[in-house]
Structures are given as structure tokens and as C-alpha cells.
Specification:
By secondary structure, the protein is mainly alpha-helical. The chain has helices at residues 2-16, 28-34, 36-48, 50-79, 85-125, 128-139, 160-170; strands at residues 23-25, 143-145. It has 7 helices and 2 strands; from the N terminus they run αβαααααβα.
Length: 196
């Protein structure tokens, strides 16, 4: 009950806050994903790797279909107090082994389009700090929180679209062809920022 009252108080305080917020939320991954350059890169990736993406999606669904009955069986065993612990642990181990094998298989299937996707994200991400600062300055914001850590927020205190707009200004296009030695997680500084 106390949490509900606190949530209501926070929501009321936010509603009473002036239009220029000191604190805002932003979905940083969403801002990158919604940027024009990243969306264009995704279109190119879907065109170039459509068959591999379709094969990945089909195999992912098949593997989920194989794992679902085992997961349901484990859940049923967990609800039954008469289930021997050793039997349950054995089933859980089988599930985890099959799940890990499925993840390895899916990683291999995603490799052809995963690296170009990561490269496009990294190129847009290099301008993220600059975009965030510009969005904060434009809206008079001093602090940004992640949406999942926020109890309540007024719509005008969400900077995600403003950050996306700033990214669109800063990053016009990105390449989907990573340099031969580039790996996800590495900086892309010096890489060409033109679409292919």
C-alpha cells in the first residue's frame, strides 16, 4: 500500500513539474535502433542477408518448440512435492544442456548478419554521447535515468526521441561492411561512415 501511495505521489509531482525537466528518462538502445542511419543499415542487412535471417528465425522457432515441452515438464515436476530432487535436477541439467546447444547453433547461424548489425550499431553509438548531451541541453535536463529504473514519468520527460533526433543529425549513414579485423565491442573510429 505504501508503494502505491509513493507511486501516486511521484506521479503527481511529475505532473506538477514545469515543462523544463531537471530529470528525464531515455531508452538509449531504443534511440540507436530508431535512428535513421541504423534503420537504413537494417534495411540493407535484410536485403543482403534475407535468406540467412529467415533460416535463423525458422531454426529459432524450431528449437524453442523442442525446448518448450521439456520446460513445461520441469515446471510440472517443480509443482509436485513428490518429485525426487535427483530426478528434477537431472531434467534441469538436460534442459540446460539442450538450451546451451541451441544458443551455440543460433549464434553460428546469426554470425553472417550479426557482425554487420553490430558494426552499424557501433557507428551510431560513437555519436551517442554527443547526442545525449545535445538533447539534455535542448531540454534543460540535468540527469537521465533508464526507463526500467523509473517509477513514473511524464511524457515530456522522456528524451528517447530527442536523442534519436540528435543521432539523425550527427549520423547520416553507416556502413554495414565492417573492416576485416573489426570485432563487436571494438571502437569504429576512423571507419568510413557511408552506407553501402
Amino acid at each position: 500500500m505504501k508503494k502505491m501511495l509513493t507511486a501516486a505521489a511521484v506521479a503527481a509531482a511529475i505532473a506538477a513539474t514545469p515543462a523544463v525537466a531537471q530529470v528525464a528518462v531515455a531508452d538509449i538502445d531504443g534511440a540507436i535502433a530508431q535512428s535513421s542511419a541504423y534503420q537504413a543499415a537494417q534495411g540493407q542487412i535484410k536485403t543482403l542477408y534475407g535468406k540467412q535471417i529467415d533460416a535463423f528465425n525458422a531454426r529459432q522457432q524450431a528449437l524453442e518448440g523442442q525446448l518448450k515441452p521439456l520446460q513445461a515438464e520441469i515446471e510440472g515436476m517443480q509443482k509436485n512435492p513428490a518429485t525426487p530432487r535427483a530426478t528434477l535436477e537431472a531434467k534441469v541439467n538436460v534442459f540446460r544442456t539442450q538450451q546451451a546447444s541451441a544458443q551455440r547453433e543460433l549464434q553460428a547461424l546469426a554470425a553472417p548478419f550479426g557482425r554487420p548489425t553490430s558494426y552499424a550499431q557501433a557507428q551510431v553509438g560513437e555519436k551517442l554521447s554527443e547526442a545525449i548531451k545535445a538533447a539534455m541541453t535542448a531540454k534543460g535536463v540535468k540527469i537521465i535515468l533508464q526507463p526500467d529504473t523509473t517509477l513514473a514519468v511524464a511524457p515530456d520527460a522522456n528524451l528517447t526521441s530527442e536523442i534519436t533526433n540528435q543521432l539523425n543529425t550527427l549520423v547520416k549513414t553507416v556502413s554495414i561492411t565492417p573492416p576485416a579485423n573489426w570485432q563487436p565491442g571494438q571502437p569504429v573510429s576512423g571507419a568510413p561512415a557511408s552506407g553501402r
